[in-house]
Amino acid sequence: MAEETIFSKIISQEIDTPLLYQDELVTAFRDIFPKANSHILIVPNKLIPTANDIEQDDELTIGRMFTVAKKLAKQEGIAEDGYRLIMNCNQHGGQEVYHIHLHLVGGQPLGKMLSI
Ligand code: 5GP
Prior knowledge:
Layout: H1 6-11, E1 19-22, E2 26-30, E3 38-44, H2 59-76, E4 83-86, H3 90-93, E5 102-106
Antiparallel strand pairs: 1-2, 2-3, 3-5, 4-5
Bound molecules: guanosine-5'-monophosphate.
């Protein structure tokens, strides 16, 4: 059984972080250390530690993460100019929180895709 992270406590609202969206599959809230003018995290309610742990049964949830990202991008007013959706995996991917999440970042030009 994977270990719960801070994100489970945000999803359950045990930690009182304002939610931008929540349904039966996913929850979205602002990143505590935004890396761009707009930086939102879209997280499955179910604990999936890394992209390597995504199963076929999770396809609906993963798809919902993207449709919610699209809605929130529009709500943030960044859809037309554009944005980036990122999921980091494990150490080389720079993952810090082991509960998968889609970063929705935008609100400014984001430059090249990778800086190594
Ligand atoms: P990762 O590096 O795992 O892809 O991204 C984790 C993200 O979660 C980071 O951008 C970090 O700022 C954010 N984060 C970590 N702890 C918290 C928290 O307690 N609340 C919120 N809202 N974001 C967090």
